[in-house]
Amino acid sequence: MEAENIITTEELTKRFAGFTAVDAISFNVKKGEIFGFLGANGAGKTTAMRMLCGLSKPTSGKATIAGADVYKQTEQIKKSIGYMSQKFSLYEDLTVKENIRFYGGIYGKTNAFIKEKTAFLLHQLNIENEADKLVASLPLGWKQKLAFSVAIFHEPQIVFLDEPTGGVDPVTRREFWNLIYQASERGITIFVTTHYMDEAEYCNRVSIMVDGKIEALDTPRGLKETYNATTMDDVFLQLARKATRADV
């Protein structure tokens, strides 16, 4: 049985003082899917994500997130999602354990749930020995994995990840994606933006934005077949060249 759509958009648009940052994008994301939202820096990925998270009102178009309307039900959306920004989003002057407990409280979880889930996360991330250390003292890769774990602490229906692996080494990136797979297996839908084209290979489907528009959307294999490419980098370069020629 085909999975239901948990994100739907139709002609979703965002303009700023005459500049169109997101230009009439339409797509659906299925429940439990790992959906890659790719594009170069400045392509409009973050602006689109902010609309989907209920943080920015669209100029026009339609979108629903877990059944909630992005115009009228933003508070309901915020309760249904997790979010991790491209900048590290935890408190560096708190310890690892204090950060986990703090966000558990924000999500309205019971003390018993927070205690049990904290122990699970520390073990899963193999940072039991760092539980009482300030987050500021951790390596960047550990910080990013901790931030992701906190973003899904409350088991949201969808988690939005904005450039989650920026600046970390390839080994840590792979470890981070293992956490993403584990979350997906638990039924959490993953919506991830990235400018690392190789990470597209890890997604079920991928959209590629160029200058605010979705220029392609398919499985990684389907995109490579369509554009007769061996890598996702090749696919992206072809789309970027096509857009450049159209602007000339």
Automatic annotation (TrEMBL):
The keyword Nucleotide-binding belongs to this UniProt entry's keyword annotation: yes
GO molecular function: ATP binding; ATP hydrolysis activity
SUPFAM superfamilies xrefs: P-loop containing nucleoside triphosphate hydrolases
Organism: Segetibacter aerophilus
Annotated TM spans: none
Keywords (A to Z) from UniProt: ATP-binding, Nucleotide-binding
Protein name in the entry: ABC transporter domain-containing protein
A Pfam family recorded for this sequence: ABC_tran
Annotated Gene3D superfamilies: P-loop containing nucleotide triphosphate hydrolases
Organism lineage: Bacteria, Pseudomonadati, Bacteroidota, Chitinophagia, Chitinophagales
Residue ranges of every copy of the ABC transporter domain listed in the record: 7-236
Superkingdom of origin organism: Bacteria
